[in-house]
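During the second half of the funding period, the structural biology subgroup turned its attention to how the target accommodates small molecules. The most pressing case was zinc ion, which had performed well in the primary screen but for which no bound structure existed. We therefore specified the complex as follows and requested a full 3D prediction, including the ligand pose.
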Amino acid sequence: MEDAAARRNQYCPRCRGVVDWRAEHCPHCAAPIPAELRDYYNFSDFEAPVDRSDLGPILTALALAVLLALGLGFGAYWLLTRLF
Ligand SMILES: [Zn+2]
């Protein structure tokens, strides 16, 4: 039970000190800990936050989709100017 409680920590937004997840004020610098931050860290216990490296393939796919759309647009324009 002590291990489970020890893992439920968060970081103070002002001094980056380790704070108990239920604390409303930082024990180091007395800064108020926002409830949203608490919820976020509780949520991250179950689901890891999105890693920046995961966005790479998504951005690449988006860039390819945009290039494809541009290519199709140019192709259609080229065809229309030839046909009419
Ligand atoms: Zn602090």
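Two results from this model are relevant to the next phase. Residues 1-49 form one domain. The longest strand covers residues 9-11.
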